[in-house]
Specification:
The complex is a heterotetramer of chains A (498), B (101), C (644) and D (497).
Chain A: H1 7-11, H2 15-33, H3 38-59, E1 66-68, E2 73-75, H4 77-96, H5 108-127, H6 131-149, H7 156-187, H8 195-202, H9 206-224, H10 232-239, H11 242-267, E3 269-271, E4 277-279, H12 285-305, H13 310-329, H14 334-365, H15 376-379, H16 381-395, H17 401-415, H18 421-447, H19 459-477, H20 480-488
Antiparallel strand pairs in A: 1-2, 3-4
Helix pairs in contact in A: 2-3, 2-5, 3-4, 3-5, 4-5, 4-11, 4-14, 5-6, 5-11, 6-7, 6-11, 7-9, 7-10, 9-11, 10-11, 10-13, 11-13, 11-14, 12-13, 12-18, 13-14, 13-17, 13-18, 14-16, 14-17, 14-19, 16-18, 16-19, 17-18, 17-19
Chain C: H1 3-24, H2 33-56, E1 62-71, E2 74-82, H3 84-107, H4 114-133, H5 137-155, H6 162-193, H7 198-206, H8 212-229, H9 238-241, H10 247-255, H11 258-268, H12 275-298, H13 302-322, H14 326-354, H15 370-384, H16 390-408, H17 413-438, H18 445-450, H19 456-471, H20 477-481, H21 495-520, H22 525-531, H23 533-540, H24 545-572, H25 575-590, H26 604-617, H27 624-643
Antiparallel strand pairs in C: 1-2
Helix pairs in contact in C: 1-2, 1-4, 2-3, 2-4, 3-4, 3-10, 3-14, 3-19, 4-5, 5-6, 6-8, 8-11, 8-12, 10-14, 11-13, 11-14, 12-13, 12-17, 13-14, 13-16, 13-17, 14-15, 14-16, 14-19, 15-17, 15-19, 16-17, 16-21, 17-21, 22-23, 25-26
Chain D: H1 6-23, H2 29-53, E1 62-70, E2 75-81, H3 86-102, H4 110-129, H5 133-142, H6 144-154, H7 159-187, H8 195-200, H9 207-224, H10 233-240, H11 243-251, H12 256-268, H13 270-296, H14 301-321, H15 329-361, H16 372-375, H17 377-390, H18 397-409, H19 414-439, H20 455-473, H21 476-493
Antiparallel strand pairs in D: 1-2
Helix pairs in contact in D: 1-2, 1-4, 2-3, 2-4, 3-4, 3-11, 3-15, 3-20, 4-5, 4-6, 5-7, 6-7, 7-9, 7-10, 9-12, 9-13, 10-11, 10-14, 11-15, 13-14, 13-19, 14-15, 14-18, 15-17, 15-18, 15-20, 15-21, 17-19, 17-20, 18-20
The chains are: A mainly alpha (498), B mainly alpha (101), C mainly alpha (644), D mainly alpha (497).
């Protein structure tokens, strides 16, 4: 992989980050300077910024794969995939925010600025190729997340969420940094791409290496909310402003997966033929992650069943989905990674969609409780139908996108042979369990009788719901282009022919 | 002669103490201090490894970044603690438990 | 027109009648009775050329072959055949059925479902004709079942009466029991010989492709079908109940269609039965012949008396077939068809006049209903086997065959006793009925007063049938047409003479006893009944067979079905419900979670899963330090697992 | 209309109808009904064309449509009919049409109902036509979702429970099918979902693999059939579902289970079948006898019909297990497929009949009726035909298929077949008993004013009744479709050891 050591030259490949940073500052400044319609302006600027980011990101594709800033950052289709992903999911949040009442009018500038900041952090995280960069990017995402979670500081729940998030996040980060210090001690390098050789050379005690890796995993596991590092998630998701929750359940989670993949596949695995890897130094981290995956989806699904608050229910569902996605991670092959990336795409559509419906209804319904969703279908049909589609997609029922995602995951597991069959079985059983609580919502909306009176959903939200609904259905029927894109995006360490 | 192992042991003790503080202290600010201990344990490791094993500046630079980062984190957390105090009239974390289940 | 066309007309005319009648009957003039009666006479006329052909050449054989379905090497043939036996049966069945139809015009006059009745009656005849003509096991089974259906519809024709509805159902289900045996028998034959066709089956058996115990079992399976249809012990219980149907239907069932089917079938597939199988059949038949006769002695319902007499006579037919009297058994089938149809129609005439079926309310009808009396008398004489009435010839032949069989195999002496004892009983109960109904003083003046002779549409069939009841036994025509399909052993020479003597003696004695008891009054029926009260009660209650079935089969079976249903609801459906409850119980102790089925959508697995989810929720305390503990605990657990 | 894509037209005509219905403004209920009727009439009309042009001598696939769909995964849009699928495919169009007519009485949420109904039809048609395993699975699941809503929204008092139970049960089955499907996909090189290729490769799978995959598939399909002990969703779903949906459920949806077995498990995993054949036959027998016994004890008319379905489906399974050396497998397999078809018509009639009664009396407790034969003679007549068809009376369609099944199964499983034949007695028992309790005896004065069956209801029943009668007398028109392909299937599986 070509390395660009020169910082100035490297800047030419970090344009998405530069654009985001620029707009972040611009929004803050503009918010100070202007006095009227600040919120509207900030929103417009944020959209503009995201659009430009998307543009410059796309223009980076011809660059191929490179290491920038003296191997601190990697720019490759894998990173670009995630950058597009983050821009897209943040854009959804930005677009849905104006029509909601979560964010105080006076602080909207800050809010949009923070949204861009967190996107910047996630972009960096997807590119991070050095432990220092990982820590910095992760902290950028985390700190911004704390602030966003506590953004409605006038509300106790929001403040509480922020506090818990901050404490938990700080502990997890601290543990991770401590693990990194051990890893540095063992390998003598902080660069991911140099680690395999260093480990092979060093002949370090396997247990020490394992401890180091485990502690680092705490930080990543916290980001993707995998059991047992998940416990912050339900409380934060419930307490945070719902648009922020929606973002947290998609963006930082995906960023966590990005860094998880790059860290483990670059630093702790060596290629063993096209599209295959072996773990270095015989650390059996695939089994470790497999167990985490199984436990994560099971715990997430089981607890979700008893939830009565929709945000909290979706929080647990998000935990369970982290478990599903992790199934692809353990395989050490291109199929698994491919399935993960594909699943992330469909997950973004359906999960953002589900949250979007909750947000859209929070205004007219004044509630995010399941019981208030009774009879919703007769009060406002389109959001209810869309919600049903999103939920069934989350369950993994064809012909919806969620099914295709799960299909790829299970296919990868089955292809890997009997070793991972148990995980596939756990996975499918969990799909069935998950139906139980997703269907509860559907049942409330369609099958139960509720109060009468029509509800009006903001037209902006309707449009946005449709924009997420269409791909959720379409990708279940025809997904070949997305499949090609995902395939291409697997190039994070040289050509990863599947 | 003080060697690498001493530093590592001290670092490990710091880490453990930090964790102990985080788990046992009720006061939010005290927990913040525990987190600082954990981060500094890591810093100590970085510097020690750099000094005794690998040479170069990588470890030191990492430590400096972590210090900076700890400062930023502390600032944000203090702000959040203040916001919590506004709502709960307390910074005891075990009284901030309305979200659960 | 060639003969095959006539055969097809004879077969399908009643079906056409039934089809038109069921859809259009109510809109036709006179509700279509003329149509249905007409097609039956068409059928009868069309059967005459067949009879002529057979008469001209007793070895005559006509086959109409086709395939019903073919699936590669597997096929089900569709074939009709005419030989001596079918030639006779075709003619006799269509003839008797035609007159019963005619009679029904009078009997069923004014019934609200008059048109429906004739449709059913047509269909019944069609089924029976098809059964007679079938040339393979599959087809005979098909018509066999259709006969069952028709009987169900007709027995339960007055379905507003629960007794009638019950009787129809009982007939069908009891027959089904026999049918399953029949079907299994067919399956066994098919498995061993690979064909359904009679001819090929017989050929295979003759060639020894199937023999020994397996063939015996197969034969008994097939016979089980006949046990049901021909109401042999122990599946005879449906027949007396079948009297709930309109009387002409009873006549049809007893004379020409339903019960005849079993006997006919045994005769048709005669080579399938091994000697061992015949021994079993003979005993079943003997028991039926004798015990049905004893029951008939104690009944007061005129139709039931005749019904039990039918049972008894069916026993004779089977007995004849089983003991080597192939011709005798089938001959009795034909003569019985005439005189039994006659007796039922005559009884129907009485019932029509008196509106009662109870013998105790009759008496002295001879003068009021002379035609009915004389025709019925002819029938009774034939039934009792008094020469020169038709019944004498056939029954005598059966007793002869039985005696021959017993002489050759003395260990089966019981069969001879059944046969001769049954003959005595026949004379007794036949004339008990005659004397109670027609002679003496009327016991119900009111009813007697209103009694009158039936209209000609009813009496003409009586007279016609009476002619045949008297003369059908003459001339040895039957032996000429029907030849045993297998070589039968000849009984000892003296058997026939002995049989002649014994049967005459028995019949005479029976009639004499009846005369003494019911006309002269030398023997008091009441006193005898009192003297042998337990025996009388046993007989009066038909040996309690129905009650035995109810207690031994029906009730346990219903309990079983209820048990299964409870099992289904309780055990299978409740399996994981139970798991759920168990877990729920544990949680309730902790007093934590409201497991009320909030949304009603509790499901098997659901409960358990919910419960586990609820337990897991407890960990989420809301205190962030606990979360961190879990985090550290998780790390430690993983580490421990790694180290261990 | 280009006829080389006739199957696509048939499958997607209802989808198009659903789209149109969805776009109609609120309150145009009558228009919605007519458009839906049109959308189901199109496949029905084309079904006649397909029936006429079906090559009865060819065992192979016909009306094939084969396009790449997701090339990266070798997923294809592959449709076609052969003798195994054609009868059910054609029947689906008919039942869907008739049940739509029976849906005329739906008054609430008309738009949603017909929209879901049409999607359901598309899903069912797709299942029977799909020859790509992936496509098959998609359609399989597509037929699941609308069912959930149709039961859950328009069902009886316990509808929510029944709907979720149905959904969970069948989804559980589906995921097992999914796993098995993936296992088969990867067992071939190059990986393929093409069923014809999967079948052609059936010799190369190891026996352990076959045994495992077979079980997963079997459970998946068995839940749909349903096979004891996976059957408890069925009575609930049937009882709660509105009449037309019960008709669809029993008439078509249940058949997807045995169809899946014949299409997938049998030809793809013949070695496993040989190992499992006897246990499977035992399960089939349990279905027959147990279903009949439980049916007998039911007090609710609809539950009774539901359990009778379990019993009748047992014959399908028994016939399918009769793939044997004795050359009788032709009877068994043809009989099984024919039984699928015949049960579809008969049980559809039965549920329609229950619905007619329920619409008038507003309950279904069997004992409470009585003597309706006097009050509703036409209705009673049609019901009698249906009842006797259900109890396997010769001359009506079910007899011939059940007889074929028994003939086919007898050489292989003598004892089981005899017990199954005894089950027929029980069947006769509960049907006649029900007939008696509902129609015979003195008329219950409560129901002396029940109106006779009306024209629309007759329109739904008469075609089915005619079919039952006609196929009872002459079954070849359907067997003709089946037999060539059945022969091929039998040859593929080979004789049992």
């Amino acid at each position: 992989m070509p390395v660009i050591t020169d910082n100035i030259a490297s800047l030419g490949y970090a344009t998405p980050e530069l654009v985001l940073a620029g707009f972040f500052l611009f929004i803050l400044l503009a918010d100070l300077v202007f006095t009227r319609n600040r919120g509207q302006m900030a929103c417009t600027l944020a959209i503009l910024g995201l659009a430009m980011t998307l543009l410059v990101t796309l223009r980076l594709y011809p660059a191929g794969e490179r290491l920038l800033f003296a191997k601190m950052m990697a720019i490759d289709p894998f990173a670009l995939f995630f950058k597009i992903f983050f821009v897209g999911s943040t854009a959804v949040i930005v677009l849905l925010s104006p029509a909601t009442a979560y964010i105080p009018r006076t602080r909207q500038g800050e809010y949009y600025a923070f949204l861009l900041a967190i996107t910047l952090g996630m972009s960096l995280l997807a590119s991070a190729a050095d432990l220092v960069m990982i820590v910095l990017a992760l902290e950028m995402v985390s700190v911004t997340s704390y602030l966003l979670a506590g953004f409605m500081k006038e509300q106790a729940a929001s403040a509480e969420a922020a506090l818990k998030y901050a404490i938990y996040g700080a502990v997890a980060t601290g543990t991770m940094v401590y693990g990194m210090s051990l890893l540095y001690g063992i390998t003598g390098t902080t660069n991911l791409y140099e680690m395999p050789q260093a480990i092979a050379r060093g002949g370090a005690a396997p247990l020490a290496l394992f401890v180091a890796v485990l502690l680092v995993l705490v930080g990543f596991g916290y980001k993707i909310a995998a059991v047992p590092f998940h416990m912050w998630a339900p409380d934060v998701y419930e307490g945070a402003p719902t648009p922020v929750t929606a973002l947290l359940s998609v963006g930082p989670k995906a960023a966590g997966f990005a860094v998880l993949i790059r860290f483990f596949y670059a630093a702790l695995a060596v290629p063993a033929g096209p599209g295959r890897w072996n773990p270095v130094a015989d650390i059996d981290w695939p089994l470790l992650v497999a167990v985490i995956s199984a436990v994560t989806m099971t715990v997430g699904n089981l607890i979700a069943i008893n939830q009565s608050n929709l945000k909290r229910l979706l929080a647990y569902s998000a935990i369970a989905h982290a478990g599903y996605i992790l199934m692809g991670f353990v395989l050490l092959n291109g199929q698994g990674l491919y399935a993960m990336l594909f699943y992330l795409i469909v997950y973004a559509f359906m999960n953002l969609g589900a949250f979007l419906v909750v947000i859209a209804l929070a205004g007219p319904l004044r509630s995010e409780e399941l019981k208030d969703y009774a009879g919703l279908a007769s009060r406002t049909a389109f959001p209810a139908v869309a919600m049903a589609v999103f939920l069934f997609s989350l369950t993994g029922i064809p012909p919806l996108a969620g099914f295709v995602g799960k299909f790829y995951l299970f296919a990868a597991l089955i292809e890997a042979g009997r070793a991972w069959l148990w995980l596939a079985v756990v996975g499918v059983l969990n799909s069935v369990i998950s139906l139980y609580y997703y269907a509860r919502i559907v049942k409330a909306m369609f099958l139960e009788k509720g109060p009468s009176g029509r509800l009006t959903v903001a037209s902006a939200h309707q449009v946005l719901i449709a924009a997420l609904l269409i791909p959720t259905v379409l990708l279940g029927i025809y997904w070949a282009p997305v499949a090609r894109f995902t395939d291409y995006s697997l190039r994070l360490l040289g050509p990863l022919a599947r | 002669m003080i060697g690498l192992h001493h530093y590592l042991v001290v670092s490990a003790v710091l880490f453990a103490l930090g964790m102990f503080a985080i788990i046992t202290r009720k006061n939010g600010v005290a927990i913040l201090m525990g987190i600082e201990l954990v981060l500094n344990a890591a810093n100590l490791n970085f510097v020690a490894f750099s000094r005794y094993v690998w040479g170069g500046l990588t470890g030191q630079v990492f430590a400096i970044f972590v210090i900076m980062l700890a400062a930023a984190e502390a600032a944000v957390m203090l702000a959040i603690v203040i916001a919590v105090y506004d709502r709960f009239q307390s910074i005891d974390v075990d009284r901030v438990d309305s979200l659960k289940g | 027109m060639d003969l095959a066309t006539y055969v097809l007309i004879a077969l399908f005319a009643p079906l056409a009648g039934a089809t038109v009648q069921i859809f259009l009957g109510r809109r036709l003039p006179r509700h279509g009775d003329w149509l249905c009666v007409g097609v039956l006479f068409v059928s009868f006329v069309a059967s005459i050329p067949t009879f002529n052909a057979v008469w001209a050449n007793p070895a005559f054989k006509l086959q109409i072959l086709s395939e019903w379905l073919t699936l590669g090497s597997f096929g089900i043939p569709l074939g009709l055949q005419v030989d001596g036996l079918t030639g006779i049966m075709l003619t006799v069945v269509s003839f008797i059925a035609a007159f019963i139809h005619l009679y029904s015009v009078g009997y069923m006059h004014g019934d609200p479902r008059y048109s429906r009745y004739f449709a059913y009656l047509n269909f019944f005849t069609f089924s029976m004709l098809g059964l007679v003509l079938a040339d393979n096991f599959f087809l005979i089974y098909v018509f066999w079942e259709l006969v069952g259906l028709s009987s169900y519809l007709l027995i339960g024709f007055w379905f507003e009466r629960p007794a009638a509805a019950n009787a129809g159902k009982k007939a069908f289900i009891v027959n089904r029991v026999g049918d399953v045996g029949f079907f299994v028998g067919i399956l066994l034959l098919w498995t061993q010989l690979g064909t359904f066709r009679f001819e090929e089956v017989f050929k295979g058996i003759a060639a020894g492709q199937m023999a020994g115990p397996l063939l015996t079992v197969t034969g008994l399976c097939v016979f089980l079908g006949a046990v049901g249809k021909s109401a042999q012990f122990p599946l005879h219980v449906w027949l007396p109940d079948a009297m709930e149907g309109p009387t002409p239907v009873s006549a049809l069932i007893h004379a020409a269609t339903m019960v005849a089917a079993g006997v006919y079938m045994v005769g048709r597939v005669y080579p399938v039965f091994t000697p061992d199988a015949f021994v079993v059949i003979a005993y079943v038949a003997g028991i039926t012949a004798f015990f049905a006769g004893t029951i008939a002695l104690t009944q007061f319902d005129i139709k039931r008396v005749i019904a039990y007499s039918t049972l008894s006579q069916l026993g004779y037919m089977m007995l004849g077939l089983a003991t080597g009297g192939y011709v005798a058994g089938l001959f009795h089938l034909v003569t019985h068809a005439f005189f039994k149809a006659l007796m039922f129609l005559a009884a129907g005439s009485v019932i029509h006049a008196l509106h009662t079926q109870d013998l105790r309310e009759m008496g002295g009808l001879r003068a009021k209903m002379p035609v009915t009396f004389w025709t019925m008398m002819a029938g009774s004489l034939a039934l009792a086997g008094v020469p020169p009435f038709s019944g004498f010839f056939s029954k005598d032949a059966i007793i002869g065959a039985t005696l021959g069989f017993v002489m050759a195999h003395p260990q089966h002496l019981l069969l001879a006793l059944f046969a001769v004892g049954g003959a005595l009983l026949t004379g007794l109960y036949a004339f008990r009925l005659m004397f109670l109904a027609f002679t003496g003083a009327p016991r119900d003046r009111e009813k007697h007063h209103h009694a009158h002779e039936s209209p000609p549409v009813m009496t003409v069939p009586l007279v016609v049938l009476a002619v045949f009841a008297v003369g059908a036994g003459w001339g040895g025509w039957f032996e000429r047409l029907v030849r045993p399909p297998v070589e039968l052993p000849h009984g000892p020479a003296g058997a026939h003479t002995l049989a002649l003597a014994l049967s005459l003696l028995a019949a005479g004695l029976g009639i004499l006893l009846a005369y003494w008891t019911y006309v002269v009054g030398k023997i008091s029926a009441g006193r005898v009944a009192d003297r042998y009260r337990p025996v009388y009660t046993l007989l009066f209650n038909k040996y309690y067979v129905d009650e035995l079935y109810a207690a031994g089969v029906v009730r346990p079976f219903l309990a079983l079905t209820r048990g299964c249903a409870a099992f289904d609801l309780g055990v299978i459906d409740g399996f994981v419900n139970w798991c759920g409850r168990f877990t729920r119980g544990v949680s309730r102790v902790q007093g934590w979670i409201d497991f009320r089925i909030v949304d009603g959508a509790v499901n098997l697995v659901g409960n358990a899963i919910r419960a586990w989810g609820a337990v897991l929720r407890l960990v989420q305390t809301g205190v962030v330090q606990n979360y961190i503990l879990v985090l550290l605990g998780g790390v430690l657990v993983i580490l421990l697992l790694k180290v261990l | 209309m280009p006829m080389q894509n006739v199957l696509t037209w048939m499958i997607f005509a209802p989808v198009a109808g659903a789209a149109v219905v969805l776009l109609l403004p609120r309150g145009r209920d009558e228009l919605v009904r007519w458009i839906s009727l049109l959308a189901t009439a199109v496949p029905l009309a084309l079904a006649f064309w397909v029936y006429a042009n079906f090559d009865r001598t060819s065992p192979g696939l016909q009306f094939v449509e084969h396009y790449a769909w997701i090339p990266a995964f070798n997923i294809e849009y592959f449709l076609g009919l052969d003798g195994v699928s054609a009868p059910m495919f054609l029947l689906t169009t008919l039942i869907a049409f008739l049940a739509l007519v029976a849906s005329w009485g739906i008054k609430e949420g008309v738009k949603g109902y017909f929209c879901l109904y049409l999607l359901l039809e598309a899903g069912m048609l797709g299942v029977f036509a799909a020859l790509d395993f992936f496509l098959f699975f998609i359609f399989w699941e597509v037929s699941l979702l609308p069912m959930y809503f149709l039961i859950g929204i328009w069902g009886g008092p316990e509808r929510e429970y029944a709907a979720i139970k149905f959904f969970l049960y069948t989804l559980f089955g589906s995921v097992l099918i999914l796993l098995a499907m993936l296992a088969l996909y990867f067992a071939n090189e190059p990986h393929t979902f093409d069923m014809t290729k999967l079948i052609a490769a059936n010799k190369q799978y190891g026996i352990a693999f076959q045994l495992l995959v077979f079980i997963a598939l079997y459970i998946g399909f068995a839940i749909k059939v349903p096979v004891f002990p996976f059957h408890t969703w069925l009575p609930d779903a049937h009882v709660e579902a509105p009449t037309p949906i019960s008709v669809i459920l029993a008439g078509i949806l249940l058949k997807m289970g045995p169809y899946g077995m014949l299409r997938v498990s049998w030809p793809m995993l013949p070695e496993a079948l040989k190992v499992y054949a006897y246990p499977l036959a035992i399960f089939a027998l349990i279905n027959i006898v147990y279903g009949a016994l439980v049916a007998m004890a039911q007090r609710d008319f609809k539950t009774l019909v539901a359990y009778s379905s379990i019993s009748h489906m047992g014959f399908v399974l028994l016939g399918m297990c009769a793939i044997g050396p004795q050359g009788l497998s032709q009877a068994g397999v043809n009989g099984a497929i024919l039984q699928m078809f015949n049960h579809g018509t008969v049980t559809a009639m039965l549920f329609l009949l229950v619905g007619v009664l329920y619409d008038r009396a507003h309950h279904r407790v069997i004992e409470d009726f009585g003597g309706l034969g006097v009050q509703m003679p036409v209705y009673a007549g049609v019901a009698t035909v249906a009842f006797f068809a259900a109890l396997g009376l010769p001359g009506l369609s079910s007899f011939i298929s059940e007889a074929l099944v028994l003939i086919g199964a007898f050489p292989a499983y003598r004892t089981l077949t005899i017990i199954a034949a005894v089950g027929i007695i029980i069947t006769a028992g509960y049907w006649l008993w029900t007939l008696q309790r509902v129609f015979l005896g003195p008329l219950n004065p409560k129901y002396a004013t029940l109106p006779e069956i009306n024209g629309r209801e007759l329109v739904t029943l008469v075609p089915l009744g005619a079919l039952v009668l006609f196929l009872g007398v002459y079954p070849m028109p359907v067997l003709d479709l089946i037999r060539a392909s059945a022969d091929q299937l039998i040859a593929l599986v080979g004789p049992l050891p």
